[in-house]
């Protein structure tokens, strides 16, 4: 019998009622008394010297309150970067200044030059047109390989070149890896592009800055995945406002996918301007602005080589990647192609030697940072594509080749620093073969061929690293933040519970899933538990939600805090029943004295905590509220095996996804329905990347895909009904729930199998010379490959 | 968006006179014009909405057997009401944009705009339709004059479009992956006196008739009749979503499919 509450049950998401009935409270729903509106005048050239910004005529336009330019931020900090990577020579990365408003130069289309604050948004836009700019256009650097050539124009004049860092990992493995390649029986190599993506959350970014003159307190309402991180970065590094005078609120947030992790100039601007003009200042991004100001994702150009011995064992792997940073370093940009990418390069396989080289490059494009999966999809894509190619070259079954090289012993020390605690890659592959009905494929291919279509089957495995930790290790790797999580469990006098979590829900369903955990631990009803998040004034310092960390890290903190609650409550119960705390058991919302029929209700204990008339005051304090900070000892390592079946129309090159199956191992599952939903969404984005999406700049740095007219988002009809399974469970060994995280898996695990399936379809028609097509596999690209 | 005035006349005559003023522009469903205004790329002083003019609304059959569609008729209505008379045209209308676009966007707006990737121009040209304005009748062959260019004069209103009903017809749209407009769309219509083939989405000159295909199909209305016929890539649109050669190729594929599916 499936459970109807607690861990393992699938109650419907309680937050959906307000989301689906228009009762959500998003940042754009927040309107403050006296609020002014800001419009950002953005650069329409990719690279230029900003000689003059003449605002004199604009300042006199109707409704204009004040116009700000880079000069107004002379004494203010720049947008900070949260991760410092050390290059292969032991030198720190090159880190350019990132002013809130452009100073001296503009560096990408969309770079904000001036901010016009006016009574209405339209008045601000009108005034923007009256600003006279003197910009001397400079040659733009767009192509990464051209950007690092000698003599290339520099994005930042004060840096020595456009190379942010040249990273080698593990540098000590390089010589041995190169040596292994010399002795290999077979080497497969592949050059590929991991296409640049625009996250496109349904809700664009919004910021409202407010300033209270009587308390000297600033408040920023913002569309963020991590309000505490924004408070720290903006308060300490940009504006110099201490935490006790700065509150950051991220209310309902309509999707993040990574792009709402980062601290953005617009947030700092609204907070700063509200203090200057002593009025609330609001900015709502248009979709067009989002395309040119939200951090983009991916954009790697890689070469990967796999060396095998004569028995088809993987003996070494070598990669070289150019990773686009864009024009400035977004908050976590440097960590994505390095610590979130290089560490995953062993994948699910026993490759003893791995060497990863990454060159991070500045270009005149929008900054690039984490997007669902962040580094891990880039690693998985390279690895799972090159394995597929190797299998074809060697004439062996791609699944067999994978199985032969699977890691089967855990814990497993990879050659790329990380240690996988658990996993069972054979089990997920077995499960995949079952749910994807591989045995029926031949018949389905025949049926497609009878319609004049080609059919292909592609598989891939993936390994993910979630809940990046522990803090002391990531500190050594260059993180400028801790990566613990916090929770305060506040039991109220009548027994209801408010849980303040440092993680943040922007669609994931925490308000439903987190109470299931506590309800299970206490034996009370979920409806008595409320999850509070997204407000620095309400909960302890937390690190927010990204990297599939909320349950593994945030949930663990919540468990620890609840354990403290249970310990204390048992003492109170023991006192009330005149028993020893050691004999108290908690079951079905009651405290029992073991071996007797004596019990006291949950509500009686909680009331006693706050009305301590009959209470062990000499032993314990009144009240029932506990906080825990949880810092994991390792990452968690979800893994899985995915299969995609495509149909390809040889006349047009159009690919359609006919079946998609995913067998994942996420460790223990709290709410299977929510987990399936996360996988569905992730696969949807993965299919989007594989077939449709791609941000493209022309040589002058104009974004050709600046709207939905040219940037192809996946739609419902582009994805099939998925077969997803998460019954293969190897619980995480180091967190109290045994959970691993599931938010990014779908986006990490799906692109390679789509591309592998298309290659398979083409080979079935004798097009064996086609070994690779870069994503997105648009009809035009597939047709061109077929007709080259 | 800049400030503008909105007028909603109820007769064609009032609309025409409102459009006679400097800075006035017709507003159909607003599915093209309003986004353009939001981006501040258009700044009409007065919008003259045509959607309150009842005589420009609706679908009917004329006594001489033409399908008449009012110039301000939304796509959704055509999709619904033309289906019995001209299924290929109704099918085309039912695949324009999404439900919201189809409920607002109008045939007159689409033909006046003459977007090189729009669907309706191929139906009008492929059917040899007559575009009726407040001042004259224009044969489709004379009406389309290149991308976003038509025979319409300033302030002229498309009040009605008249389609001769073919024996068989079909529209095949190959969607541009992002916008889902036609990357290439081919409208094929077989009349007693010959076959017409109109192609949208493909050419730098906008919608055009593929005369070689028409000749071949007029002899034999079969997909095989098109074997060996190709269009030169030269003059085709080449962009992110499709090279010139790809578009030229797709015209051939879509034409064959339209012939095979014609009903
Ligand atoms: C999301 C989206 C998807 C779309 N997809 C497609 C698609 O797949 N295929 C397709 O063909 N189209 C598509 N369209 C276009 C849409 O179908 C409309 O046909 C088109 O926008 C123009 O019609 P309208 O009535 O909205 O005109 P408007 O936007 O109101 O006007 C367009 C132009 O025509 C003029 N005009 C309007 N009516 C008349 C008239 N009766 N006489 C003279 N001039 C007039 C206006 O002054 C203006 O210059 C799409 C639009 C959107 C927003």
Protein described:
- The complex is a heterodimer of chains A (788) and B (263).
- Among the domains of chain A are: 424-464 and 636-788, Aldehyde oxidase/xanthine dehydrogenase, molybdopterin binding domain (Aldehyde Oxidoreductase, domain 4, 2-Layer Sandwich), CATH 3.30.365.10; 484-630, Aldehyde oxidase/xanthine dehydrogenase, molybdopterin binding domain (Aldehyde Oxidoreductase, domain 4, 2-Layer Sandwich).
- In chain A, 27% of the residues lie in helices and 23% in strands.
- Chain A is built from 20 helices and 28 strands.
- In chain A, the strands form 7 sheets. Chain A has a 7-stranded mixed sheet with strand order 3-5-1-12-9-10-11, sandwiched between helices. In chain A, strands 7-15-14-13-8 form a 5-stranded mixed sheet, with helices on both faces.
- In chain B, 31% of the residues lie in helices and 23% in strands.
- Chain B has a 5-stranded antiparallel sheet with strand order 4-5-8-6-7.
- Chain A binds chain B through residues 122, 125-126, 129, 288, 651-654, 691-692, 696, 704-705, 708-713, 776, 778-780, 783-784, 787, and chain B through 1-2, 39-40, 174, 177-179, 183, 240-243, 245-246, 249-250, 253.
- The structure holds flavin-adenine dinucleotide.
Describe the strand arrangement of the main beta sheet of chain B, using strand numbers: 4-5-8-6-7
Strand-and-helix sequence of chain B, N→C?
Answer: EHEHEEEHHHHHEEHEEEEEHH
Average pLDDT figure of chain B: 97
Provide the β-strand percentage band of chain B. 15-25%
Specify the oligomeric state.
heterodimer
CA distance, first residue to last residue of chain B: 45 Å
What spatial form of chain B do the alpha-carbon principal axes imply?
globular
From the 3D structure, determine the CATH topology of the domain at 424-464 and 636-788 in chain A.
Aldehyde Oxidoreductase, domain 4
Helix content of chain B: 25-40%
CATH architectural category of the largest domain in chain B: 2-Layer Sandwich
Major β-sheet profile of chain A:
7 strands, mixed
CATH class of the domain at 424-464 and 636-788 in chain A: Alpha Beta
CATH-level-4 superfamily name of the domain at 424-464 and 636-788 in chain A: Aldehyde oxidase/xanthine dehydrogenase, molybdopterin binding domain
Query: CATH architecture of the domain at 424-464 and 636-788 in chain A, please?
Result: 2-Layer Sandwich
Number of helices of chain A: 20
What's the alpha carbon Rg of chain A, rounded to whole Å? 27 Å
Low-pLDDT segments, ≥5 res of chain A: none
CATH topology group of the largest domain in chain B: Uridine Diphospho-n-acetylenolpyruvylglucosamine Reductase, domain 3
Total number of helices of chain B? 10
Task: Count every beta strand of chain B, where a strand is a DSSP E run of 2 or more residues.
Answer: 12
Compute the separation of the termini of chain A in Å: 57 Å
